[in-house]
Amino acid sequence: GNSRLKWGVHDGVRWVAQGLLDYAGLCGFADLLRAQPRAERAVACNVAGAQAGEAVEAAVAAAGLPLHWAKSQSAQHGVRNLYERPEQLGADRWAGLIGARALHPGACLVVGAGTATTVDVLDAEGGFQGGLILPGVELMRRALAVHTAQLPLADGRFAGLPRNTMDAIVSGCLQAQAGAVERMYEQVAALPGAVCLVGGGAAGQFFELLRVPKRRVDNLVLEGLA
Question: Which pTM value belongs to this model?
Fold first, then answer.
């Protein structure tokens, strides 16, 4: 991911271990892997850049595992990639779409809420029709603090009608996330069994605000890699 490494050990049926690791702690990743149930191989995707990728490769090699880097494809595991240039779709978004298809056989909106928020439309036949990328909740808060003269880095609470600046900033950021998701959900709302699948570390901040059929999924990217 953009901010942290998410890892899991899967036995082919269920997750037997999962965790998060700051990139500053990657030097200990090999030892962490050795402490888990023995795996046969590693499958990974990377949107954090070459340095993080090299550190993960070294840790996985030190743990004695072959490593496969997942990349966006034109079609894979029941999902068709209709991006103008399929290889340009982020590998994490592609994995999330595959994970969503495995968890839900019908049309869905696939939301990944992290440093950035992605909102992707998957039709009933498994076609990725397109999607959005917008700043995540924390990036929105920090952008207001950094690029305005008098607005603080807000530590407020959500309110329907905020009556102080801190709550107004936080509520605005959360409403922006929920509003983007709800507008995109209109693309699939009329399709039978359509649902919004929401994952990512920031999902809990606005999940309850969503006024659409929804389901929280802990980590769609890991589901897709599995």
Answer: 0.93
